[in-house]
Each structure stands twice: as structure tokens, then as C-alpha cells.
Amino acid sequence: MLGYILKRLLLMIPTLLGVLLFTFVIVQFVPGGPVEQYLAESRAGPGGAETGGFSYRGGEGVDARRLEEIKALYGFDKPAHERFLQMLGQFARFDLGRSFMHNKDVWQLIKEKLPVSISLGLWTFFISYLIAVPLGVAKAVRAGSRFDFVTTLLVLVGYAVPGFVLGVILLVVFGGQLEWFPLRGLTSPGWEEMGWGQRVADYLWHIALPVTAMVAGSFAVTTLLTKNAVLEEIRKQYVLTAYAKGLDQRQVLWGHVFRNALIPIVTGFPAAFIGAFFAGSLLIETLFTLDGLGLLGYESIIRRDYPVVLGTLHLFTLIGLLTKLVSDLCYVWVDPRVKFDG
């Protein structure tokens, strides 16, 4: 097992380098980089619009010495391969660089935005599994019944409706017309002066709508996966043997069937846990004005804030690769018969 883990860790290095190299090359061909944006803003008038109408003119009308100073400011005075090697050296020391747009370390930006993503991710993950697993078991036990048909229809409808569409509906109905929930933000003004009980209530009041929008489509796959896994186990011979020994349905279901059906569920647990933080939250964060990692990544791409784009990509790719390794190791933890060394 130790040899397998070491082999997987070594394979992560070329994968991570490939992702970074591919993204870095694409970045070099994208127009409107930080130098160009700086020049455009320097030409803009007091109202924020460029005098004479905006049109991209590169370094036209800018002193060559001044242009070189601006390039040196952003680190673009060096060849691309030198900048790439320098970036790899920084990432090897876990130095993600400094943001052009925010003038802060990328690590600091991530730590500032992380609480919002943690709030959305944790609630989405736990609520999804708390609904999906019991519902999947109930559907398997009552397979073919009216309950199974109705719940399958509801689950598929929830899966088919995009989260941001459901979020718009929730905002319009419960935030706008009924005014039961706030329209934006994670907390109310003056949250720091509230008591602990008021803080918790205010936080849950704000997080209710965005979490509902994210949960609606996230538990469908887990529900159907749980149902199919339990159904497959119920049809096996050992279940009939357990009934023949005098065990009731509850003992057979939760003591034998559910334990074996957990294999496909538990092995996907780490990936689902990490994915709840970093996947699919951009539109929800934008819609509910939540300043999290998704919104940070989107704004960084629009503003060509390359240190943030490449730094967060490096971090998320590394987390994804490690999560995949943990998912594979869960096979051995759940089913000791699995031997990766063989």
C-alpha cells in the first residue's frame, strides 16, 4: 500500500505541471492583460471612460521607457519561459504570488473568501447526504411503488432545474414578494454586536436560500446511486440466508445490506466533500452577492489577474489530485478485499 501511495504522489507532479503549463500558455495569448488594462485606465477620463471613446491601442502614445517600467511592475519584462520557471519555484515554496487587482497576497485573498465557500460547501454537502442516503434506502425498499415513482420524479425535476434558475425563483418569491429572507449577503449589518443566539439565527436566515438552491440538484445522483446499490445487495443470496436465520427486515437492511451498499457511496465521499466547496458556486455567489472563492476566480479572469488565476488553479488542482487519492484509498478501508499492490 505504501508503494502505491508513493507512486500516486509521484504521478501528481507531471499532472500538476501539465495543468499549469497548459493554462500558462493560454494566458499568454489572451488579449487585454494587466499592462493593457493599466494603460487603458491611465487614458480614461474622470468619469472612468476613455476620452474619445474606448478602443484598444496597446502601448500607442505611451513613452517607451514608461511602458518598460509598467511591464517590469507586473513582471512582464522577462521572457515567458523565465516567468513560468519563476512561477513554479514560487509554487514549490507554496508562495502563490501577489494579486495585481487587489494588491494582496493570493493566500490572504483565499483566506478572506474561504468562509463564504465553507459556509455554502459544508451545508450543501451535509444536507445533501442527510437527504440522499435515507431517501435512496427508502426507495430501494419500496422499489416500484408509488412512493418510488413520485420521489424519482421530484429528484429528477430538482436535478434538471439549474441551481441559479431556482435561486432566481427563490429570490423573487421569498426574498422580493414575501420578504421572508434577505436578498444578499451572509450576515446583517451590525452582526458583530449581536449576541451568539442572534448571530446564529441571522446567519441561518441569510444562508437558507443559497443553500436551498445548491442542494436541490446536488443530491439526485447520490440518491439514485444509493437506491441502485441497496437494490443490488438486496437481491444477493446472503440476504435470504439472513432472513432464514430469523433476522427482521431492519436488522438485515441496516446490519448487512446497508453496510455492503456503502462501498460506492463512501468512496465518492471525499470528492463530493471537496467539490461542494469549489464547484458550482460561482452563479450562486454572484446571484446572492456572496463574496467567495467562485466570485474571486471569475473577477480574476475578467480583470486578467494572472497570479490569482494561476495560484488558485494550482491550489485547487493539488487538492483535487489528493482527494482522488483519498477516494481510491477509501476502497481499501470499506472493502479489505481490494488490494492495489496486486
Primary descriptors:
MetI-like fold, 15 helices, mainly alpha, about 350 residues
Question: What does the model show?
Answer:
Keywords: Cell membrane, Membrane, Transmembrane, Transmembrane helix, Transport. Pfam families: BPD_transp_1. It is found in: Cell membrane. This is ABC transporter permease subunit. This protein has helices spanning about 1-30, 35-45, 65-75, 80-90, 105-140, 145-160, 165-175, 195-220, 220-235, 235-245, 250-265, 270-280, 280-285, 295-300, 305-335. With about 350 residues, the chain is mainly alpha-helical. It contains 15 helices and no strands. It folds into two domains: about 30-95, no CATH class; about 105-335, MetI-like fold, CATH 1.10.3720. The protein is globular, with a radius of gyration of 26 Å. Helix 5 (about 105-140) runs antiparallel to helix 6, helix 11 (about 250-265) packs antiparallel against helix 15 and helix 14 (about 295-300) runs antiparallel to helix 15 (about 305-335). The relative contact order is 0.14. The model is unreliable at about 45-60 (pLDDT under 50).
